[in-house]
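Write out structure tokens for Helix-turn-helix type 11 domain-containing protein.
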Amino acid sequence: MWFRTENNKLGDKKKRGPKSKFTDEYLINLVNENPNLSLIELAEIVGTSITTILRRINQIKDNGKRIDYCSKKTPKFTDEYLIDLINNNPHLSMAELGRITVYQKKHIPEGFNQPLPNPTDEFLINLIKENLDLSIEKLVPLAGISSSTISNKIRKINKSSKTPIYQRKDIPKLTREVLIDSINKNPKLNTTELAELTGVSANVISEKIRKINMSGKSANYTKKTVKKFSDEVLIELVNKNPELGTKELAEIMGVSKSTVVGNIRKINNSSEGIKCIMKRSQKISDESLIELVNKNSELDMKELAKLASVSIATMYRRIKQINSNGVVINYFKKRTSDNGSKIN
């Protein structure tokens, strides 16, 4: 049922578009005084899109007003011309590029900034194979979809294929020779420390060591036993060094940071009582966060955030970012009872 109000008449119910940022007169004068300007140049001067300029010119002509705009002759349609056109107009679709050049869409190769709401697996596979050096972020404008969509599609394709089509570019290449050399030169380091040294995860180190040993090559690595220490030793160390963070404490005791965090949590929950707050001096790395969550799977988001000395929102965002290319952190939302206690 329609209602009339003082400021809203029945005839005003027609949907209105956004208000124009420039008048017809302004555009008419601009075009008539600069007959040599192309649509691209007019759009840059007015501060709007090429499609908006073209639409407004057509509207003005339809209204019977005089505007002396004629399509400009384009240079010869060479590869160089097309590359330059696309690089200078990365936001335009293939149809818009076709209107600018006065060529049909078929003259512009597929894949150049063409919005693809749901590209096929074949398209994505070919795109990656033709651009092996590009990261996911750089594939986004070529594929016309978001980075998360690309990541999800790659993960599904990799699971169904014997040969992965894409490997992350931000992980440095660790050859067998480099790993063997690192192990032989640093025999006292454990897998976590070797991972920090080589810039990969501890799981990658362990898997590569296993493969190297199976192939008959020599990687002189022996599994390092974690040093045991009593609660009393840890309590005394913390109380005598209140300014130290868990990372510094771990280095002093010769264990991992997650081991120190886990022991502090257990002591805090017992009657012994130990007050240690993680220092905010350094940002927690992805590897440390993964290790922290996976080794403390019973903790909820609030408790994990407290241990990592970050906000709950930051903890949630970091977990989501790390898991965006496949589940790495095994975190599950904890259920609570009516009285606030956790349900296992």
